[in-house]
Specification:
By secondary structure, the protein is mostly helical. Helix content is about 70%, strand content about 0%. It starts with a helix and ends with a helix.
Length: about 190
């Protein structure tokens, strides 16, 4: 009879972890799949890809087995699934999919590779984390300004137009504050 912990670990390694770590490896930046429902997409894709990975591992183990020696047993299946998951985690970490690893030790912090700022590399963990957070906030504000501008030009209601212009002005002020903060971080000594 199986231990409930073994059953949970088996379900996680067949139905979730390999695919989820593969998705994080392929798309390391948060919001890359979808700005609003990124976590939902990661979980759903992770579940589907985990089943695909488990099936492919089973086919591979069956293909390399010889007559009378079945490699599609629990031991080799576990070993290959755990190994693949660890490789996906390592490559994903290298690409910056797990920036919170910096909480374990600052040397483990790796920002997502697509939008790093070169002058922040020599800074402390807190400065790099703050820089990444400010850059993400600025990017979101710029997207908000663009959508608010489209909404303001599409409305014929005077009150709504004033509302949208006020929100645009607030967002622009916040972008200016973020730019000032990024300038101060850049001038700080490493």
């Amino acid at each position: 009879m199986s231990n409930p912990l073994q059953v949970l670990a088996g379900i996680a390694f067949v139905f979730f972890l390999p695919g989820y770590t593969l998705v994080n490896m392929l798309f390391p930046r948060r919001g890359e799949l979808d700005p609003e429902y990124d976590v939902v997409y990661r979980i759903a894709l992770g579940m589907g890809l985990s089943i695909v990975v488990a099936i492919l591992v089973g086919f591979m183990l069956n293909a390399i087995s010889s007559e009378g020696h079945g490699y599609v047993t629990a031991g080799p299946l576990w070993a290959v699934l755990v190994s693949i998951t660890l490789v996906f985690i390592l490559v994903g970490w290298f690409r910056g999919a797990y920036p919170r690893a910096g909480f374990i030790h600052p040397s483990l912090y790796r920002p997502p590779s697509a939008k790093t700022v070169p002058w922040a590399q020599g800074k402390s963990f807190e400065a790099r984390r703050r820089t990444d957070r400010l850059i993400k906030e600025r990017e979101q504000l710029l997207v908000d300004i663009k959508s608010l501008s489209a909404q303001a030009s599409a409305t014929s209601n005077l009150q709504r137009g004033v509302y949208y212009r006020k929100r645009i002005e607030q967002a622009r002020e916040r972008v200016a504050q973020i730019n000032d903060d990024l300038g101060k971080i850049m001038k700080e000594e490493p």
